[in-house]
Amino acid sequence: MLRPSNCLLLTLLLTGCAGLLAQENAGPSVREPTAQTETQPSVQSKTHPHKFWDKENICLFAGVGGARLLDYASTRYLRDQGDYEWLLSNSLVDNRPLFVGIELAGTAASVGVSYLFHRTGHHTLERWVSIIHIGVGVGGSIHNYSLKPPRVIFVQPVSVSTQ
What we know:
Mean pLDDT: 78
């Protein structure tokens, strides 16, 4: 069983690995000019060195969606075991269509924040929004699945006879 401190450590480790992978895939930020690129005008502007819907962002957004799906499943598992949700109210989590909407809104918010960073030229932060979202989502899901069901104490009623 994973303790909450181990889940936090695992989340930080996964986030760090994902960040290193994203930096490795990004490649060098400054390309050396070649004869071909010197004669042709640059298609991309200085503020947008890559398209927003490039391969790396699509993979990161799919990861965010997967992490939110895993969060949904692990939270439903948690509630089915009889545990209480501490971040949202139990009535929100128990209303399945509403909870699916909340998970979809979280995914859309992550993509939206990444887009804002992209438009303002903060391309490293654009990627890190998704990386951190994936790490926190997977870490929370690991925590939810590692919890044991709560102990339920059944008390038998004592019959009192009046004699």
